[in-house]
Every structure is written in C-alpha cells, then in structure tokens.
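Kindly inspect the following:
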Amino acid sequence: MAEGKATLLISCIDRPGIIARVATHLFTLGCNIITSDQYSDDEDGHFFWRIHFESLRRPVSELLKDLDASMPSLLPWERLRWQLFDAAKRDRIVIMVSRLPHCMMDLLSRHRFGELDGDVVGVVSNHPDLEPLARPFEVPFTVIAVARDRKSESEAALSKHLGELRADTVVLARYMQVLSGDFLRAWNKPIVNIHHSFLPAFAGQRPHKQAHDRGVKLIGATAHYVTEELDAGPIIAQATAPMTHRDTVADLARKGKDLEVMVLAKAVRAHLKKQVLLHHNRTIVFE
C-alpha cells in the first residue's frame, strides 16, 4: 500500500548519469516511478525533469527530509533546483476578476465538476458586478475596491485577505488592475494571468484595437506568470484563431474570449499538476 504520491521537479546543468542516480536513489527510498518526462536544452546545457511517483514505505513529508539531506550530494552540480510536491496537498486557488465574467465562470465550472487539481477558496474583484454569477458556486466573493490614489491600501487589504484564505495560487481571470512590484515581492507565490493577445505582440491596453489597426490575420491569447514587467512574464500556454479584413474590433474581442477561456484553463491545469518548470523568463511545460 502506497504511503502517498508526489511529483519531483528537477533542473540543473546536464551531466551524464542524472537519471540513473535519481531513479536509483528513489528506489532505495522505497519509491516507485509512475511517469517520467525529461528535456535537455542543448543551447545552454540545462536538464529538466518531472517525475511522478508513489512512496511505498514512508509519508511524503518524511521523504522530503531525506531528499533535503541527499539531493546536494546526489547531484553536486551548479544551478541545481528541485521541488517536491505532495499530491495529497491540493493548491488553494483564488480567482481575481474585474467585470468580464467568461474566464471566471469557466474556472468555477471546471472546479465544480472536479476538473482542477486544486480548490478554489475565493473570488476577489475590484467591482461587485459579478457576485451574483459567482454565488451559485458557493465560493466566497470579496470586493476590494481599487481607488487610483489609494492603491497601496487596496493591495495591503488584498495581501491580508490572501493570507486569511491561505492561498497558494492566484489566477487573474481578466483582472484589469496592474499589481505593483511591492505586492508581488511580498506575495512571492505564483500568479497566473490571461492576456487577450498573442504576446509579445500587442501588450498593454486595448490589444484587439491594436491588432485591428495592424490588420492582423491571427488573433491570440496568452496565459503567463506575472512578473513586475507588465505582460512579460514566462508564458505557459497560447492559442490563435484566424481573422479576416471583415472582422471588426468587436469580432476580435468576441473570438478572443473563446481563446482566453481555453488557454487560461490549460495553463491553470498545467500549473496545478506541477507540469511547469521555470527557466529564466520562459517555461518548460511537460504535458
């Protein structure tokens, strides 16, 4: 009988024998590998590995202590980074939204029907408009207004609220406020954002108007991690749809919403399943 399942993410400088060393070590610790995905970046010599396994002899919490003590000597190479995630500990998710409901509604629906490997513990908005739509899902809806000249107070209230919810992951589901660098540094946990363009094209405001003015033949959506640089964080998922000269700005926005829902859900699922490794300002996503 397995004591628990876990996912181990590893990145380091590529060297011969990494897989053999880690697999043998996990075996000696009483673990059985279920799935294994790896990737070597020939350009900068990095190795990336996702291992999903079951621990047969001890709880994952005890296994973490063993790995803390053994990983530095097991892989004694520069730039070693690793994380162990206990499959029994589901992420606590907070959705943030402004006035457009499509991404929020899709995530709440997926959560209701068990499609997310995490628990939505709250919705936060800077407007009250969408509270009636969220109410049937029985997820607490909190309004934290953002006044232009009192933004720091709003972010302090947001930080306090996220702490009270014991949130692990924040999802910006068309939350139309820019989070400050001070807030991001204090929060220091993952934030997944959906942007309504195919980044890095048409970053910032009104991307559909920008795209229409350029006469693009593809419209896109991008889910990425939030960093201090606006719309420039590591990209997790993207998608596009064809456009023609007949499409208006409203047509682009309507078609873009379909992409946003799909792309954000894909990115959130990958994040929750611990399929994403960060490397500088890009991601390695194991599917």
